[in-house]
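Students often ask why inverse folding is considered easier than folding. One informal answer: many sequences map to the same fold, so there is more than one right answer. In these notes we will look at a single instance of the problem. The structure comes first.
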């Protein structure tokens, strides 16, 4: 039987409905959530993502503050902007779009963001929280992946979850989230031997490698849940995921399309984190003053 196609766009829309009401209620109690996005350079994909984030803010009534900086902006200037944003009362979330130009040390920039405003969930403190506990600000794409998995109704306990990719943004955090729900997790990467055979044992397969249609249809275990995080543009302009969609859909119980699967969920989770940050208040003011004074 062909798979159930998981409509990430519809789930994201449904979440937005609820979030719009939450923003309205925050505004009526005196706080409009604010998200600052810092984009350095002209990477076309980054520009598209930043535009989508701004549009989502508009739809929800979240204040959007944008810094579009030239590619030769110094590291010092980026750090100084982050420090200003850390101190602004009208900014509850700060997102520095990655990748940054090579002359800027991304780790240094991410460390400078007030963890209470780290709506990407990339600060080591928030990543640490994710490992030992629940993070109040989980990374957006992994959180979106988990929401879509939950909506299939699968009970993850004792299931074999295979994650393709070990990035800090997706592979590593989503593995921890799956483990927390008692899945048995295998993380595969470019050096993994017998990748196809491992995938064939996956009850849940999360593909996040950024290689067009690398996962073949016959790698899918019949009845599996397949979540495709990849967004790859082919030479003819077509967007495809990391999974051969049509062939995989013949075997899977449920599968996300590309586009319209995980992508819209990442944006929805970013909005959710911004609202959470606005509700919690900024915090860590004393620590941040110290970090910024030393910079
Ligand atoms: N570049 C690609 N994905 C992301 C993301 O989720 N957050 C940021 N800040 N940059 C990205």
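Output (designed amino acids):
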């Amino acid at each position: 039987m062909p798979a159930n196609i998981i409509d990430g766009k519809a789930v994201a829309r449904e979440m937005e409905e609820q979030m719009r009401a939450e923003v309205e209620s925050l505004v009526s109690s005196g706080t409009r959530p604010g998200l600052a996005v810092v984009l350095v350079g002209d990477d076309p994909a980054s520009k598209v993502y930043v535009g989508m984030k701004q549009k989502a803010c508009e739809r929800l009534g979240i204040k959007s503050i944008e810094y579009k900086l030239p590619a030769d902006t110094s590291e010092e200037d980026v750090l100084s902007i982050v420090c200003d944003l850390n101190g602004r009362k009208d900014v509850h979330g700060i997102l520095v779009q990655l990748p940054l130009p090579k002359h800027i040390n991304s780790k240094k920039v991410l460390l400078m963001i007030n963890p209470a405003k780290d709506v990407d969930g990339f600060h080591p403190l928030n990543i640490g929280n994710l490992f030992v506990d629940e993070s109040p600000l989980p990374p957006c794409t992994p959180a979106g992946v988990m929401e879509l998995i939950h909506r299939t109704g699968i009970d993850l306990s004792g299931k074999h979850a295979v994650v393709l990719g070990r990035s800090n943004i997706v592979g590593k955090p989503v593995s921890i989230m799956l483990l927390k729900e008692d899945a048995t997790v295998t993380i595969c990467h470019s050096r993994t031997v017998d990748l196809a055979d491992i995938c064939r044992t996956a009850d849940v397969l999360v593909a996040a490698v950024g290689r067009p249609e690398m996962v073949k249809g016959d790698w899918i275990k019949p009845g599996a849940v397949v979540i495709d995080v990849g967004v790859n543009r082919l030479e003819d302009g077509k967007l495809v995921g990391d999974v051969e969609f049509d062939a995989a859909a013949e075997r899977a119980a449920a599968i996300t399309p590309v586009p319209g699967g995980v992508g819209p969920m990442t944006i929805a989770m970013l909005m959710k984190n911004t609202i959470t940050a606005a509700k919690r208040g900024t915090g860590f003011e004393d620590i941040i003053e110290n970090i910024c004074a030393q910079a």
